[in-house]
Amino acid sequence: MAPEVVVNEDLLRERKKCNFNIKELTYIIDGGRERTEDRRNIESIAFKKEHLEVVNKGPPEECLSLKERYEKAIEKSCLFAVLFKNFVAAGDVDVETIGSSFLRRTADAYLNEQSPFAVHLGMFVTTILGQGTPDQQAEWLPSALDMQIVGTYAQTELGHGTFIRGLETTATYDPETEQFVLHTPTLSAHKWWPGGLGKTANHAVVIAQLYTKGECHGTQPFIVQIRDRQTHMPLPGIRVGEIGPRMGYINADNGFLGFDHVRIPRENMLMKNAQVLKDGTYVKKSHKKMTYGTMVFIRVILVSDAAFNLAKAVTIAVRYSAVRRQCQPNPDAPEPQILDYITQQHKLFIGIATAHALQLTSAWLWTTFAAVQADMREGNVDNLPELHALSSCLKALSTSDSLVLIEQCRFACGGHGYMLSSRLPTLYGYVAGIRTNEGDYTILMLQCARFLVKAFEQTEAGNSVSPTVSYLSHTASMGGCWDLTLEGIVSSFQRLAKGKISAAVTSIRRRVESGMSYEDAWQLSTIQLVAAAEAHCRAVICSAYWSETQRLTASSSANVRAVMQQLASLYITYWALERTGDLLRYCSISENDIVSLQQRYEELLALIRPNAVGLVDAFDITDEILQSTLGAYDGRVYERLMAEAEKTPLNSEPVNKSFHTHFKRFMQGKL
Amino acid sequence: MAPEVVVNEDLLRERKKCNFNIKELTYIIDGGRERTEDRRNIESIAFKKEHLEVVNKGPPEECLSLKERYEKAIEKSCLFAVLFKNFVAAGDVDVETIGSSFLRRTADAYLNEQSPFAVHLGMFVTTILGQGTPDQQAEWLPSALDMQIVGTYAQTELGHGTFIRGLETTATYDPETEQFVLHTPTLSAHKWWPGGLGKTANHAVVIAQLYTKGECHGTQPFIVQIRDRQTHMPLPGIRVGEIGPRMGYINADNGFLGFDHVRIPRENMLMKNAQVLKDGTYVKKSHKKMTYGTMVFIRVILVSDAAFNLAKAVTIAVRYSAVRRQCQPNPDAPEPQILDYITQQHKLFIGIATAHALQLTSAWLWTTFAAVQADMREGNVDNLPELHALSSCLKALSTSDSLVLIEQCRFACGGHGYMLSSRLPTLYGYVAGIRTNEGDYTILMLQCARFLVKAFEQTEAGNSVSPTVSYLSHTASMGGCWDLTLEGIVSSFQRLAKGKISAAVTSIRRRVESGMSYEDAWQLSTIQLVAAAEAHCRAVICSAYWSETQRLTASSSANVRAVMQQLASLYITYWALERTGDLLRYCSISENDIVSLQQRYEELLALIRPNAVGLVDAFDITDEILQSTLGAYDGRVYERLMAEAEKTPLNSEPVNKSFHTHFKRFMQGKL
Question: Is B308 part of any domain?
């Protein structure tokens, strides 16, 4: 008989205190009751006892060698993929299904972070969908979706990352055999980083410089088989392996890949956007921008990934802070829950609010993305630049903010946050990965800045601009005065962003006027340009978060509306206080206003405090997904820490063999 | 024949460009030419070929299971400890030798981060030195220093960290047998975290609540044998094991420990500061503050540890940035070295400057510590509160700044910084550990704030205060105007700190006047108190860094003086720009001043750029210590990354067994 689960008393009391309907908030966060039910249905299948027994057998994964971890990851990925195929078999397969956060959060429970199959679905399949012709899709998609073949997406090289034009891998067309010859001319040209490539994938989409009739036509995608389907041996001319240990993505099987004149059929170039005819003639078919699709899609996904991983971290840290007691400011009272310390609230509540902000912004971005996708199917790419700029800065800021706040959650858990069993270091390692991959922070901010500078010039010329930068024309007429309402602060953030964009433009122009080339002037202004893009992105998030909160709580219960608005107020007030220097410079904020902001901020902490545990419960992240000794629903922190320690293989024997091989002789002075 | 080492051409060119004498700067950083020579001597012995063969045999450590890693750590620790004993045998053994950063940096080369023996020397031995009577020292020190016994320091418990009064482990004196009975009354009372405890140590200093004659006298240190010296089996009544995987400190063998009525002789209580007589009478011998010694010592050490680990990170990132080329802003030129991008300089040069700032501040703090130690030997504890406050806030801010900047170095290395072979994630994990252990950031800042508030009240009463807070009396007479000289900015930081301390005091008093208890008012003001302590600490570092730079370069060559002053200027200007909001509020800085600061900052980046590689070379961190594929002296980044990847056990066979056990059947739809 299983012992009854006893929930920690402090947590029980916290849950009694909560004054809003947790389920109602969960539905809002998920995007509606039906979606919550869908998600729970997926979870109930994935977390069946017999599945979890496979997932959890053996010692904690972090104790194993990397080779053993890979083997375990394959076993678990196969199990999950079988379930996944059943899930998707029930519905239409489109990018939305593949990108579904519900499936991804379930995969987390199986694999901690990334599966060797993740790139197959997220990028191999989606690239065929986005860049293959209908014939090519008919050729490759069925076996790919059924996972009879498993692919990866090989773009980044050892010596070349973000700058795609710098890639060195070549695909040279040979009209005699109607084949492309793939080749890796140098060490630095080896593909490096693709997930699933090291030991798993038997196919890859390879991005290479296309040469035909002696001319280079830039990078194109090619499907290349890299391993034999029967023996799994690398095919002739293929050099492939794992790139070695990483900070995170430990199970992701990231690999390297080199080609020694490997030949593939002409039909293996994905030809939706450009073609090579049998005789070697190159034909460009569509706008270069059409190929942005996959990239933008992945960035949109990463915003919601950042939100979800932050939600996990703050769930762990808030529950732990309700259970942990420390110090004794009042000698007659017991040690207080650390959640009662205002410094702890200062660390954690901004995490809850940011998880909301990013989740609502990501849902809003997803809607924008879907609309632009629909436009593009009609051949209209007008809104793509705005979406590209938005997805760039939001990916950068959301992953960066989440990373900082996940680490802050870890700090807030003291020494126990340093244990891998807390799960906080793993969340950090994963989000550190998504902060860098698919576009580094600085580079993405500068991509957004290009868009902002263009928009700024448009408004100077009196032209209209896209909605998310329309403040560049409005703010001039808004007057300069600081307004302590939330709408007022959001406007101030926009004025501030405009001020920074304007300062960067001035700095570029001053340099151009002194005789510098535009590009050099741009380069020397990049510190300011990054700051401008950050300010813009913060204004976008504040604005979207506040308006989505208003919209979503219009018909909600009063108490849910209250807590959601408190969180949004906290977020906006927090960032106003973080940016007092800018607000003093660009808006007419006064010393008294700053003092009022600080007081309001502290009042909001006090208002949120009684609902804090309820708020993280509303993320509805099951223990199977959370996998945290500190953050489990029952709050039995110390019992779980000790139980986890006891599973460490080092503890399976009282004396380690190194005592006999080295340590004893050393202590006896015999070494 | 070994192939000739070819240094990367970009690095060669950078080194030619360097305009100052690198050796001269190394001597200054080390504290004098003799110290550099001592250090190199230690390194030349430690890094003999036959030693490194033992250290480096087998696959990369990060690929092994935790059990294998522990076994390797013991083998390497024994080898290093034999060398260590020879080193110390040559000189007097005192805390300074044990704390020597030269020995610790060499240990890094052997163990990546922490050895299972580290706490033995750093805390077990030093506690006996600091808290044992002469008789007890005679009894325990010889075998401890000769490492015939290996100990740890067991204070923190599963449920209790910083708040020592809350510890639950008891030591109850039994006058009949003249023994103490050690006991662990609850799960949360288990000792948790001590390094070396899990599988290695056979002794421990245990901090427990002393009970005698039915009365509790607070915590005292006891020496307890925990394992049999012949068999290494845990002794009866001892429950001991490893606590499980951690974010860093992977080889540190952190453990848990519980006692079931374990008896030890009366003589095993360390009795320098308090005694229990045979009949059980408790006698207090000296000021409670005397026991702060070990704690302050460790904090002082951690400041230099933070500086050194940051120096490693920035060495890696600057060398890599000189080798890595990316993007092509000018279509007629090759891809530039990423070190030429001003955004990259913005990320990295503050890292070089901060490593200098913390190194010089730590040397200055060490001098202060030695003086206070000498005072204490005379029974004078007058300067201890200042030292305690200083060591608290400097430990907090130095580890926190280093952590952020190490991560910034990692970001600056893009995807390759995510590889463990870059070493940046390991440095992050280690410094993340020292940021939390020996006192969490917030708690240490609040300890410093207590001191600041007292000092503020003293100056209000017209009394004089300790040197590092004397600005609290001076700044009033300094006038309010902003002064763009570096001395002027340092004064502004002091004025700013005073403003924040004053605001926090006002906030406490307002609450007390409204009827709140002082302690409650303090608690509600802690966000402001932490901010005040941060501002104070930043002013201390800026002031110490600038004055030490002046002092140390008074007799140096002009070019070394120039680069050191450029770095100090960069540091101070950087922090002024980070704190414009505060400077606008508390000092009379103008918009034009801010623009000037930004321009000066960018000029300094340009001045430092040609010497950047020389500056990191001057840290003189050998490849054996650095252990980085990205940061080696020869800059052969891609060769090293590929060579390291090839050592991964996953690559020792073309097809992993999981293909046959699961993956093939899965692709065939048979799972």
Answer: no
Output DSSP code: residue B141.
H
Asked whether residue A94 carries a pLDDT value surpassing 60, the answer given is: no
Q: In this complex, is the C-beta atom of A417 within 8 Å of any C-beta atom belonging to chain B?
A: yes
Assign residue A243 the CATH number of its domain.
Answer: 2.40.110.10
User: Domain for residue A622, yes or no?
Assistant: no
pLDDT digits (tens, 9 = 90+) for B338-372: 999 999 999 999 999 999 999 999 999 999 888 98
Please state the pTM of the whole predicted model.
0.97
Closest residue to B655, CB basis, from A68, A232, A442: A232
Task: State whether residue A188 sits within 8 Å of chain B by CB.
Answer: yes
- pLDDT average, residue stretch B607-631: 97
Any domain includes B599: yes
- A580 near B CB under 8 A: yes
Question: What is the rounded distance in angstroms from the CA atom of residue A435 to the CA atom of residue B415?
Answer: 10
C-beta separation of A566 from A612 below 8 A: no
Say if the Cβ atoms of A418 and B436 lie within 8 Å: yes
The DSSP letter of residue B475 is: G
The alpha carbon of residue A18 is apart from the nearest alpha carbon of chain B, in Å, by 23
Q: Chain B closest CA to A375's CA: distance in Å? A: 31
B119 falls within a domain: no
Q: Kindly state the percentage of chain B with pLDDT values over 70.
A: 95
Q: How many domains does chain B have?
A: 2
Domain extent, residue A250, equals 149-286
DSSP annotation of A467: G
Q: Hey, which residues 331-350 in chain A have their CB within 8 Å of chain B? A: 335, 341-343, 346
B195: left (phi over 0), alpha (psi -120 to 50) or beta: beta
pLDDT given at position A288: 61
pLDDT of residue A87: 72
Q: Rounded to a whole number, what is the distance in Å from the CA of A293 to chain B's nearest CA?
A: 22
Q: What is the dihedral sign for C-alpha A173, A176, A181, A186?
A: negative
- How many angstroms separate the CA atoms of B204 and B198, rounded? 11
Catalytic residues of A, which ones? 438
Phi, psi of B199 (to 5 degrees): -125, -10
ipTM: 0.96
pLDDT reported for residue A536: 98
Mutate to test the interface with B, among A77, A143, A327 (most CBs of B within 10 A): A327
Instruction: Give the 3-state secondary structure of A92-130.
Output: CCCHHHHCCHHHHHHHHHHHCCCCCCHHHHHHHHHHHHH
